[in-house]
Amino acid sequence: MRYKRIWWKGIDLDAFEWNGTMGPFSRSYDLFGDRSITLVSIPGHSGGLFAVKITNGEGDHVLLFSDGGYAERSWRDLVTSGIAAGKVAQKKSLERIREQSLDPRCIESLANHDPDIRPHVIEL
Length: 124
What we know:
Strand 2 and strand 3 form a beta hairpin. The termini are far apart. It is globular, with a radius of gyration of 15 Å. It has a 5-stranded mixed β-sheet, with helices on one face. It is α+β, with helices and mostly antiparallel strands and about 120 residues long. It has 2 helices and 5 strands; from the N terminus they run E-E-E-E-H-H-E.
C-alpha cells in the first residue's frame, strides 16, 4: 500500500469515469465538456495519476503533468522516476508527455517537483 487512508481523512474526493480517449492509454476526462481542461491518464508513477491539459480556443495549451516526471529533463531525455507502480506504463506516459511538450502549440509543460520552476503567470 503506497497511500495511507489517514492522509485523506477529512478530504472529500469525487471519483469520475473517463469520458474521452486522449492520452497514451486512451483515457481522459473533459472537465467542462469543451476541451478547455482535460484530465489525461498517465499511470506509471502511481495507478491513478493524471496530467491536466489546459487549452485555449486557438489550440494553444499548457500541460501540468504532476509526477509524470520530476522535471523538464524527465520528458526531454525520457528519464523515468525511481518510484513506479509500473515502469512500462511510466515510460509510455512519459513518451506522451514528451510528444505533447514538444508540440509547437504547447506554451509550457510543468512537473510538480522541478526545482527550476519559479512562480509565474501563464497567459493563454
